[in-house]
Amino acid sequence: MIVIGDVLQEFSLSSDGAWDRIVQVLKFYSKFDAITVDDLIYNILVMGSEGPPAITIHVTGFKKFHGVSENPTEIIVRNLKEYLNKRGLPKGLILGSCSILETAGQGALVPLYQTLQSAISSKESGSSNSRRVIWVHFGVNSGATRFAIEHQAVNEATFRCPDEMGWKPQKVPIIPADGGVSRIRETSLPVEDITKSLAKQGYVVMTSDDAGRFVCNYVYYHSLRFAEQSGTKSLFVHVPLFTTIDEETQMRFVASLLEVLASLQ
């Protein structure tokens, strides 16, 4: 049992304004099954009692798929919380869920939407708090030599090979109600600014307008539509294989990306 008064006293927090922050954090984490007292205390302290509400970022990666037996995004997302705990979370950032998705389209829609919905309660949907939620999806481009911040997704599923559930659509609208395969959805995040900030830190990164037509684009399109409906934000990032850019550099890149996102107003 967490006694808030003890937490305040132990960390010498002023009660003025701190109570609102504590309530905010506790309400957010009440939606998740697994959360430690240390995590609660840390996230109460990370923002303090002043400034704008923290940005909560949820991340996803993918499991293996045809031609990629070890997906770097699965390793990145699985190890992200531990990595950030050692490095220290940037001010203004709450790291939410870290989920690994099946590399599949239509057959994995239910768990995908369960993952997206897990961050948004019906009561918070459309509120000012929900606008401080960002979904960041990571996928691998096995032929890439740099990171790519994806600006948009296209309403087209044309899989070059079957997904992990055996589906291989060709020229199929991802969401038929959206119209034809030429429909585009764009992220509301400032992709160019994000890319420039990361490039200044020495990362080999580019802005991309083509997330492909495979599962990455499929998930991004659904996520962008969900973000529009729920008042949240969504971003997709392609990473290379670890043989091209090593794991440690990629972990640093992801941490830097989250820091840039947390600094957005």
Automatic annotation (TrEMBL):
Keywords tagged on the record: Cytoplasm, Hydrolase, Protease, Thiol protease
Single GO biological process annotation from the record: proteolysis
GO MF term set: pyroglutamyl-peptidase activity
Pfam families in the cross-refs: Peptidase_C15 (PF01470)
Taxonomy, superkingdom: Eukaryota
Entries under InterPro entries matching the protein: Peptidase_C15 (IPR000816), Peptidase_C15-like (IPR016125), Peptidase_C15-like_sf (IPR036440)
Gene Ontology terms: cellular component: cytosol
Family note: Belongs to the peptidase C15 family.
The protein, known as: Pyroglutamyl-peptidase 1 isoform X1
